[in-house]
Amino acid sequence: MTTQLLVMSKKDIDRHDVLKRLIRKEIKRYHASKLLKLTPRHVTRLKQAVITSGATALIHKQRGQPSHNRLPEKERAKIACLLKEQYHDFGPTFAAEKLNELHKIDHDPKTIRAIQIKEGLWKPRRSKTKDVHRSWRQRHLAFGEMIQFDGSYHDWFEGRGGVRESCLLGSIDDATGMIVELEFAPHEGVFPVFAFWKAYIEKHGKPRQIYMDKFSTYKMNSHAAKDNPDLKTQFERAMIELHIEPLFANSPQAKGRVERLFDTLQDRLVKEMRLAGISTACEANVFLKEKFIPSFNEKFAVEPASSSDLHQPLTEKERKSLASIFSRQEKRTIQNDFTFSFQNQWYQLTSDQPATVCKKDKVTVEERLDHTIHIRLRGKELNYALLPERPKKAAVPFVIAKSAPMPVKPRANHPWRKRFNADVLKSYS
Q: Which of 145, 171, 290, 322 is the most buried (most CB within 10 A)?
């Protein structure tokens, strides 16, 4: 007589115990269905199966058998090889996308994840409870109503081209989550930001609001600025001239959409540029506009609540003065010889001017994106000449004039006075 070994799970054992009690009529079918969380009809079928075949009736016939959807070992080995060679630091979702796009291997990210875990390329992560920083904010309704903007310093090219850290400027629409513009820049200073937004507005128009952090390029954070609201940065001044409202976040979480965008870009964009062999900012900017941004928006952008585009076109006056608006502007006072200094360089106003210029007038000096200098007074552009050195004042001879000696009056008790007084008294006697 042979003994059959049954491998049963705890669930099967619990079911068998309840069904044995039902067979012994210790409980009714209704109570058994409640205990097993099954329908009464299903409980009846299981009861008859146990009576006929015993406990083996509760064991699934496919237990221990390979799944029909199991990958063939040859294909699994091919995927594992690709993951090790080209996608060793990719996440399951991104790796599945690239395998489908570049190698025509279409599998669910969960399947790719299982292979990565087995090969030691991915560690299972516990889901984290997100900290609540602010109450949830509704998306804006239409495209162009609010644009979130920021810059991110990162090793975008992974050391290729000899550059360890680059700055990426990016803008994302709040209503759609769509990347509007991305561009690599030398830094997050006034001129790169001005160049970014000048190109943005010429292409898309003026958004109603721009949401950003309190970086010094965008907002003055000194105590003097807090006491004097008229003190503005160059960026604030330009936005006000264009009738665009700048908004400043008090924390990174407040502008979470653009913060999450850069988190995603530091993962996906870095790997995309690695696969494309991109090592310079110029190549990257072309890649962003032609390939990455359209692909990203197709995958992740959402439909807005309103189909309207709230970007406003430039007026004719704004279009003509756009180069002037996006310039660094400072005030200078005209000296008595009609000269002034700017950035350690001296300038001389010429005699032929479109407006009357007086001494001590305050002119506006504009340094534009092409680094040319323009001088304005009461809406007129003045003519000037560049001086090779600082103007020197005419030398005035310094002469010490000889003055006549001052008369000396002797004091009352001076011996001379005593002799003088004695002689006077003697003459009267």
A: 171
Residue showing tokens 């979702």: 93
180, containing H or E segment: strand 179-185
Longest dimension (CA), the chain: 177
Question: Cα(171)–Cα(138) distance, rounded to whole angstroms?
Answer: 19
Look at residue 26 and give its three-state secondary structure: coil
Q: In degrees to the nearest 10, what's the CA dihedral of 47, 52, 58, 62? A: -140
Distance from the first to the final alpha carbon of the chain: 177
Cβ atoms of 195 and 179 within 8 Å: the answer is no
Which residue type occupies 406? M
Q: Which structure tokens are listed for 215? A: 């970086």
Exposure string over 17-42, b if 16+ CB within 10 A, otherwise e: ebbeebeeeeeeeeebbebbebeeee
| Of residues 198, 285, 305, 298, the one with CA closest to residue 242 | 198
Say if residue 253's pLDDT is above 90: no
Sign (positive/negative) of CA torsion 367, 368, 371, 376? Answer: negative
More confident residue, 169 or 14: 169
Residues contacting 416, CB < 8 A, separation 6+: 410
Q: Strand, helix or coil at 183?
A: strand
Q: DSSP state, 326? A: T
Task: Check if the beta carbon of residue 211 is closer than 8 Å to that of residue 147.
Answer: yes
pLDDT at position 44 over 90:
yes
Distance CA 369, CA 351 (A): 28
SS3 of 292-304? HHHHHHHHHCCCC
For 120, left (φ over 0), alpha (ψ -120 to 50), or beta?
left
What is the edge-to-edge ordering of all strands in the sheet holding 380-382?
328-333, 362-367, 373-377, 380-382
| d(C-alpha 101, C-alpha 95), whole Å | 10
- For residue 370, which phi and psi values (nearest 5 degrees)? -85, 10
Q: Is the dihedral of CA 5, 11, 13, 16 positive or negative?
A: negative
